[in-house]
Amino acid sequence: RVDMRVVKLFRSTALRSFGHQLRHYVSRDIGQHTHYSHPDLIAENEILPGITKTEFADRRQRLMEELSKTHYGMLNPKHLVIIPAATLRYMTHDIFHRFHQNNDFLYFTGLQEPDSVLVMDCANNLPQHKSILYVTPRNPIKEQWEGPLIGPDDAVSFLSVDEAYDMNLLAKHLEERYSKEGYSVWYYGEREIPSIISDAVTNTISKGLLQLPGAKVTSMHSLLHHIQNLRVVKSSSEIELLKKAGKIAVNAYKQTIPITRPGMYEYEIESQFEHSCRIQGAQRLSFVPVVAGGHRGCHLHYTTNQLKLSDGNLILVDAGCEYFGYVSDVTRTWPVNGTFTLPQRELYEAVLRVKNTCIECCKPGVTLNYLHSISKEAFAVELKALGIIPMDLDGSVLANVINGLYPHDIGHYLGLDVHDCPLLSHNASLVPGMVLTIEPGVYIQKSFGVKRKEFQGIAIRIEDNVVVTTSGCEVLNSGCPETVEEISKLML
């Protein structure tokens, strides 16, 4: 890697001699996918594939409409909404992680650049507002090293905001335009600020609005719940991106399952899955995958993925990918040698029946907690029938045993985040456009006392992603092998 200190040797002369030429050369390359760089993916009026400038503007408008219905929204005519981008994080002093955007910022702007800030200024009664972006200014030296930046001029035209400024002006504008004007400020609560947001940005906001002499900010409020109320219901264009992420995961499983053999290592399975996702256009995996052979599947978030796969065991893989911000989260379990043993098959088909029952019950008006209760009732029937738990077990004793064998919820909301909109209650009624996972599982530790000892050490989870429709739900990862027959045929 190049030592960044050498930049200091030629910075000043390069700025003078090269700056204008570089600015002209990259005038349409802004550092992320656009119609100009990827016309096969993004149409002329889109910011992300299928998501237009108009949709992003509508999202900002709907947020302001949401705030206008609150007590403080009706009480005060002046409001300032502030949503920062993420910052670049480092593994060591100068070696950085791959950048990942703050998904709230991405949802309202579509910009994939770090260290930017979206400000929505309502000077006279919600929901009227101006959308203002503060971005890193164009800099030929920085761009020579790191690639092109959008800059304030292109931010206005490409992202369709009202105004855009050099990020270095944020503190000055907060002080001069807003700090003494009686605004209500909407930001993250003190304990809600994502760790990916720069401390410098948060300190600038706090200092610029609250700590200056004569500051007259009337109140500070948390945005997060209001943002998640919007994000949880997906538009048709968002659903298409989630379907694409699901389809990529399906194809990755179809390419990963057949190569599995005893003696392979878990990391080989992980590598195949990731390669398949990336080669199909996914930007990254959506989380560190679980690739767990045998009894290691009983550890729900096992991600070491370093051990050898043994003949006669199952392998549980929980993985997904991210496609232009939107994610998939799909789990499949299959035999390492291609053949289910009798107890493996019996338990696998029981889990599959529970999963399919929950999908049949998923429709508008029900809740995630209701679906979870359905899954627990179904597991009680299935596990009794298999002799894993006694037939006469009932009441709180039965509930405790089921919770021990099935210790997680039936699912979670899904979207820009894997665990999307975590503030939204699982008692909220599902409505069309919500996307969630359905992921029942059974994990029988080797120490679990069971009459049929051949079940000990078996871990099985099957997970699909579904979107709620007007009459039920649609599986977004349809076609992913799940029956014993489909998996066995794939592994021949």
Principal-axis shape: globular
Main beta sheet, described?
Answer: 6 strands, mixed
- Can you count the beta strands? 19
> How would you write the strand order of the largest sheet?
6-5-4-3-7-8
Quote the distance from N terminus to C terminus: 45 Å
Mean pLDDT over all positions = 92
Q: Provide the gyration radius in Å.
A: 26 Å
Share in β-strands: 15-25%
Helix count equals 15
Q: Which structural category fits the helices and strands?
A: alpha+beta
DSSP helix fraction: 25-40%
User: Which spans have pLDDT < 50 for at least 5 consecutive residues?
Assistant: 4-27
What is the compact description of this entry?
This protein is an alpha+beta fold. It has 15 helices and 19 strands. The strands form six sheets. A six-stranded mixed β-sheet has the order 6-5-4-3-7-8.
Q: Could you please describe the fold and organization of this structure?
A:
The protein is of the alpha+beta class and 492 residues long. It has helices at 11-25, 53-68, 71-75, 103-109, 140-146, 151-159, 170-178, 199-211, 224-231, 236-256, 266-279, 342-361, 368-385, 395-405, 484-490; strands spanning 46-48, 51-52, 79-84, 117-122, 130-135, 163-166, 184-187, 219-222, 284-285, 290-293, 314-319, 321-323, 326-327, 330-335, 435-438, 441-443, 459-461, 464-468, 473-475. The strands form six sheets. It has a six-stranded mixed beta sheet. A three-stranded antiparallel beta sheet has the order 9-12-13. It has a three-stranded antiparallel beta sheet with strand order 10-11-14, with helices on one face. A hairpin with a 4-residue loop joins β18 and β19 (473-475). The protein is globular.
